[in-house]
Amino acid sequence: MFLTPNVPPPAYLCYFIAACWLNFQRALALVVMTAVVVFFICWSLFKKHCGAKVMLLLTALHPVDILSVTVWDFLCRLLWVALLGGLITWLVLDTSRNPEQLISLAGFCFLVLFLFACSKHHGAVSWRAVFWGLGIEFLFGLLILRTTPGIQAFQWLGDQIQFFLGYTTAGSSFVFGNTLIEEVFAFQALPIIVFFSCVMSILYYLGIMQWLIVKISWLLQVSMGTTPTETLSVAGNIFVGQTEAPLLIRPYLADMTHSEIHTVMTGGFSTIAGSVMGAYISFGIDAASLIAASVMAAPCALAMSKLVYPEVEESKFKGKAKQNILEAASNGAAASVGLVANIAANLIAFLAVLEFINSALRWFGEMVDIEGLSFQVICSYVFMPVAFLMGADWADSPLVAELLGIKIFLNEFVAYQQLATYKKNRLSGLEEWDGSRKQWISVRAENIATFALCGFANLGSIGIMLGGLSSMVPQRKGDLASVVLRALLTGCCVSMLNACLAGRSLPTASGATKNQGRGGDTHRQRAEDPYKCRCSNGDSWPVLPMALPGPPNPLLSPHGFARGCPSPRAVLGPLTLIWAGMGTFQGQLLGHCKESWGRGGMAHGTCKHSPRYRT
């Protein structure tokens, strides 16, 4: 704003003073933008005139030159031990108030260990990259999800993006008319992609996006020790898609190592493009959570990529990357037409295929008296332990597991649509249960699902990734195909790690927090007896604090999970799939809830006064 030829600095200064004098509160956004611009102008001038002198001074005062190498290594290790001890102490003190958050922490550790078990070269792992990446992710998560300034800042940013995307209506209503915009999905969400792509193209043309990506990649590179090319691509994935980000490093793709290619792919699978983010926001998905998930995914993707596929080759790009390799996404609005058409075609095809699969599964299920068998039900079994470890309440885990399955086997667009439906049902005041079907999930589970779904890691993206990169470096098709599945797994786990961190940081779903927007649940547990199951016959019996509900019972619950009083046996929750068929005999074995009976006179073990489940 200071450098535009039509508005010289004195004129802008007068305008700025007048705006602040008339109404400082109204001009607060202008003050912030001006302060940011002034800071970077001053920083640029400082680097230009004093940067070389400062670097010489820092080199002369390098601690290794002053202290012996042994003493310096000892001090570094002592600092790391102190930081680790402080982190563990803080986690213990913080989770002592909400022990349920330990589940998310356990899920985080489990996923990291799982990825290490899948590592290509266990002995070559760069632990500096891993710890720094996870540390930056944790710091971002703590700032965004736990501190008041961070929460307010990202909420404000999300609100501004929603307000900005609202300008799409001006163009789409003129072309399609107000009636179509209000009633037809294709004319509600898809025009936002066109508008957002146009804006991104303008930002590239002005050089703003390149500058921002370079600064973020520099921060990640100097802290994690990764090469400039792979770091630049991952940083670009925060803003652009999985095929656009590699354009930033296109001249170097032919000479990249297998580990660097794996990192480029992982970055694409673990994030979403800014254009489709606008569409998800239009669904009603929380904008602040989407932005936070995209920012947190970059360092985590670098860290987990180097954990799964460590560098064992000699990289050719250890120097500083030249900024002139950045390629702008030209013709933004025109190029987005293909993207919009691709999304619309995929939605039609995927939803049609999903309906066919569900019809076929229902038909096969009815042959053996299993009602309501569907793809979503199968996913709720397979991914339910994962959803629970991410921090979702056990009652919400089946629905979160469904969303994970839809995201991985179909795409995240369909999954976010379903999540938006659950959110709309909750805000509309619908009953939590409609017979055996749960109609919405808690606010905490919604936020966790938002983080878990934020990524392009699905089976369909394999073809998109291979097609995009193969067109840039056709001579390396074999290398690309050899690492793509490992990158897909890593990218999927990165999104889940972000969800675990969100579950660790967000308030637990207890009391009114669980039922925001509905006015509470009349069957909620009393705070003074948190681990009691109460039946209408007056019986009250304690259960283990970490006990889970009884096993799912597809024969008695069309949705795929039983609702009942927790049993001591249920601590084997992660083994749900193994003993799912035993759910029919749950009530006969326990007999705690004598008034609930399933079909055919067989005890189902359900309790309508259970704190988490209602009949």
Automatic annotation (TrEMBL):
Q: What is its main location?
A: membrane
Q: What are the entry keywords?
A: Cell membrane, Membrane, Transmembrane, Transmembrane helix, Transport
Where are the residues of the annotated region Disordered?
A: 510-529
Q: Where are the transmembrane segments?
A: 27-46, 66-93, 105-123, 129-149, 161-181, 187-206, 261-281, 287-309, 330-353, 448-468, 480-501
One GO CC term, this protein: plasma membrane
Q: Which cell locations does it reside in? A: Cell membrane
Molecular function GO terms recorded: nucleoside:sodium symporter activity
Task: List the biased-composition ranges (Basic and acidic residues).
Answer: 520-529
Q: Which residues form the Concentrative nucleoside transporter N-terminal domain?
A: 106-178
Q: How does it sit in the membrane?
A: Multi-pass membrane protein
Q: What region holds the Concentrative nucleoside transporter C-terminal domain? A: 290-503
Keyword set includes Acyltransferase:
no
InterPro entries attached here? C_nuclsd_transpt, C_nuclsd_transpt_met_bac, CNT_C_dom, CNT_N_dom, Gate_dom
Work out whether the entry's keyword set contains Cell membrane: yes
* Residues annotated as domain Nucleoside transporter/FeoB GTPase Gate: 187-284
The cross-references to Pfam families, in alphabetical order and at most eight, read: Gate (PF07670), Nucleos_tra2_C (PF07662), Nucleos_tra2_N (PF01773)
Supply the NCBIfam families for this chain: nupC (TIGR00804)
Protein family according to the UniProt entry? Belongs to the concentrative nucleoside transporter (CNT) (TC 2.A.41) family.
What is the protein name stated in its UniProt record? Sodium/nucleoside cotransporter
